[in-house]
Write a structure and sequence with these properties.
alpha+beta, Immunoglobulin-like, five-stranded antiparallel β-sheet, 8 strands, about 25% strand
């Protein structure tokens, strides 16, 4: 075989290997991007007092899939709860089935996905779905009592008359007039007057010095000052101007 033919044969073999490798890679990529039953999950939840069953599709290709939910009884389908179509995403798309489920009930979720007349998924979610042991109940909302209040309102307290059962003592009533004695003589007035008596007034003036000897003392002091001034004046005259 000539060198040129050997080179050509080698090139053909290399192209075949490359094509086969590319086919394997594309096949693997197609399998990875295809919808799969592992992309689906189910759960039983509560919407207030009502039960619901949710199915989430995380198929990144967004292939439309038909989800069917069945209630099971001893491994057989008792009834079909519902059927919906979902187009999944990488973050997940959820569909909800209204179902007043009972605690411990078992549900079968079947998924069918077809693309370009090729069935990609036709299987049940593994393990089926068992509901929680506690049924859904409505949230208890505390109610506000509408009866009369135990404590009296401010207006009631204010309107209660003094001296009643409210506990507030009534103010003392004015003293009645003292009865007259049996002999017809009016009793002596024992009311103490708040006005000061004249004697009290005089004692107050004495305490402030109104009746003391202040005037006499002032007069004697004035006389002494005058005598002293005169003595100084006559003494200066006797010495004369030359004695300075």
């Amino acid at each position: 075989m000539s060198p040129s033919r050997r080179t050509a044969a080698r090139s053909v073999r290399m192209l075949g290997v490359t094509a086969a490798s590319a086919a394997l890679v594309l096949g693997a990529s197609g399998s990875a991007l295809a919808s799969d039953i592992t992309d689906f999950s189910a759960a039983a939840a509560c919407d207030g007092a009502k039960g619901v069953i949710t199915v989430t599709d995380k198929d990144p290709t967004g292939t439309p899939a038909v989800v069917t939910v069945f209630l099971e009884n001893n491994g057989a389908d008792l009834r079909q709860v519902g059927e919906q179509t979902v187009e999944g995403s990488k973050k997940g798309v959820t569909v909800t089935f209204a179902e007043d489920w009972e605690p411990g009930a078992v549900y079968r979720i079947h998924v069918t996905a077809t693309k370009n007349d090729k069935v990609l998924v036709n299987a049940d979610i593994a393990g089926n779905l068992t509901t929680p042991a506690k049924a859904c109940t409505a949230d208890d909302t505390p109610t506000t009592p509408t009866g009369p209040s135990a404590s009296p309102s401010p207006s009631d307290s204010a309107s209660t008359p003094a001296g009643t059962d409210s506990g507030t003592p009534a103010p003392p009533a004015s003293s009645p007039a003292a009865p007259s004695s049996s002999d017809g003589t009016a009793p002596a007035d024992t009311t103490v007057s708040s006005a000061p008596s004249p004697a009290v007034g005089e004692s107050n003036l004495a305490e402030t010095g109104a009746n003391s000897h202040t005037g006499l003392i002032v007069g004697i002091a004035a006389v002494l000052v005058a005598v002293g001034g005169g003595a100084v004046f006559f003494g200066m005259r006797r010495r004369g101007p030359g004695s300075r």
